């Protein structure tokens, strides 16, 4: 019985030390999930149907651990574009938007990079200036971007960069094709939020 009591005492003392050993885990015990968000105006300087123009817009995103961004953007043609087909003038209007996903490289630095891609769609309208008849069509768009960000304040960043807009699906719109809507853009973003 004495041996049983000593064995029981050893097990009683040893088991808590064994159970208190550090378990391995996927995340460190000091891991803190951090997230933020931002939103603000966006401008894209580009060509539509061969004419230099700009698109105004608004975008925002949820930022996970200061690096991964998930959000969306919406853009609209903010200037007059005109095309001529067989001597008839047509006013062109366009808007598009979609889902953004990206990655911020070295976000703690004053100047850093952000890469992201917009996947979505939009609509283009061609209006005959004499008869007011309209042709319109929806299209699919993919737009990869790379921006240089400047941390002005903890709550404000300015981004300047470039993108390429790939458009597919424009059919039946007088004077406009996929190639007329796609192309390179210069970008300017103002981001307000918690980074």
Plain-language structure description:
The structure is a single chain. The protein has 195 residues and is mainly beta. It has one domain: Beta Barrel (Porin). It is built from 2 helices and 9 strands. It has helices at 2-19, 178-181, and strands at residues 35-48, 51-64, 68-77, 81-85, 88-105, 111-128, 134-153, 156-168, 183-194. The N and C termini lie far apart (66 Å). The relative contact order is 0.18.
From the alpha-carbon coordinates, what is the Rg to the nearest angstrom?
Answer: 28 Å
Mean pLDDT: 88
Secondary-structure element series: HEEEEEEEEHE
CATH class: Mainly Beta
The CATH architecture comes to Beta Barrel
List the defining traits of the structure above.
195 residues, mainly beta, Porin, eight-stranded antiparallel barrel, 2 helices, 9 strands, 11% helix, 64% strand, elongated
Q: What's the helix and strand layout?
A:
Blueprint (H helix, E strand, L loop, with lengths): L1 H18 L15 E14 L2 E14 L3 E10 L3 E5 L2 E18 L5 E18 L5 E20 L2 E13 L9 H4 L1 E12 L1
Antiparallel strand pairs: 1-2, 1-9, 2-3, 3-5, 4-5, 5-6, 6-7, 7-8, 8-9
How is this structure best summarized?
With 195 residues, the protein is mainly beta. It has one domain (36-194): Beta Barrel (Porin), CATH 2.40.160. The chain has helices at residues 2-19, 178-181; strands spanning 35-48, 51-64, 68-77, 81-85, 88-105, 111-128, 134-153, 156-168, 183-194.
């Amino acid at each position: 019985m004495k041996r049983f009591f000593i064995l029981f005492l050893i097990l009683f003392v040893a088991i808590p030390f064994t159970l208190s050993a550090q378990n391995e885990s996927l995340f460190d015990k000091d891991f803190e999930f951090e997230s933020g968000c931002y939103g603000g105006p966006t401008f894209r300087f580009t060509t539509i149907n061969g004419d230099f123009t700009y698109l105004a817009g608004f975008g925002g995103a949820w930022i996970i651990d200061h690096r991964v961004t998930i959000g969306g953007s919406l853009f609209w043609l903010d200037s007059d574009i005109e095309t001529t087909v067989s001597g008839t003038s047509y006013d062109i209007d366009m808007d598009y938007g979609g889902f953004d996903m990206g990655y911020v490289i070295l976000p703690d630095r004053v100047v850093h990079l952000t890469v992201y891609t917009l996947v979505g769609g939009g609509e283009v309208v061609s209006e005959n200036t004499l008869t007011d008849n309209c042709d319109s069509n929806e299209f699919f768009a993919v737009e990869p971007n790379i921006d240089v960000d400047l941390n002005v304040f903890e709550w404000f960043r300015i981004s300047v960069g470039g993108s390429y807009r790939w458009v597919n699906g424009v059919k039946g719109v007088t004077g406009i094709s996929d190639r007329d809507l796609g192309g390179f853009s210069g970008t300017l973003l103002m981001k307000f939020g918690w980074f």
